[in-house]
Design goal:
Blueprint (H helix, E strand, L loop, with lengths): L5 H44 L14 E5 L9 E5 L2 H4 L14 H7 L4 E3 L7 E4 L5 E4 L2 E3 L7 H28 L4
Antiparallel strand pairs: 1-2, 3-6, 4-5
Helix pairs in contact: 1-4
Length: 180
């Protein structure tokens, strides 16, 4: 741009600035929309993958939600969280003690075989598999298999984000060279 009159030089710089601003808006809008779509997809996957106990009542899988995070200017952040208190609060046992794990951690990582005995009553009472009430002094719990729903979904989300970044890069390149 050397040798251009100052007014033409300023006009070209303005066009470059406006073009870059347009590319930045395109990228920001595309990334924000894409991140929101990825988060909503992650919520659906987690709801489907989180095991449900039989019967009525709240299920921990229903607590999954996506929300925007104010991470500062120019930072796009969306997080997926479980709002059910059992996902983040340590479990309180019948004897009043508190575990160092949550229900969500048990479902994610599983639990070992363990014995269950009544503490504040003579018998344990619970609904059996056929819908009948069961009363017993001991349960040999087989443990809980790990479902890995969070780990599996996190891996898929990482791939989705990579695809979004690649698609945004392609779009910006095509816009820059005038193909779209």
């Amino acid at each position: 741009m050397a040798g251009l009159p100052p007014s033409e030089f300023a006009a070209r710089l303005t066009r470059i600035r406006d073009g870059l601003a347009g590319l930045a808006r395109t990228a920001a809008d595309g990334v924000l929309d894409g991140m929101n779509e990825i988060a909503e997809s992650a919520v659906k996957r987690l709801v489907e993958r989180t095991p449900r106990s039989d019967g009525e009542g709240p299920h921990i899988g229903d607590g999954w939600t996506a929300r925007s995070v104010n991470a500062g200017p120019g930072v796009v952040a969306v997080e997926v969280v479980n709002t059910d208190p059992r996902a983040t609060e340590n479990l309180r046992l019948a004897d009043g003690s508190v575990t160092d794990y949550t229900l969500l951690e048990i479902l994610e990582y599983g639990s070992k075989r363990h014995d269950i005995y009544p503490v504040n009553a003579e018998f344990l009472a619970f609904m059996g598999g056929g819908g009948e009430m069961v009363y017993t002094k001991h349960v040999d719990h087989p443990g809980t298999r790990p479902y890995a729903m969070v780990g599996t979904t996190a891996t898929e989300v990482a791939l989705d984000v990579k695809r979004l970044i690649d698609a945004t890069r392609r779009t910006l390149t095509l816009k820059q060279i005038g193909r779209i």
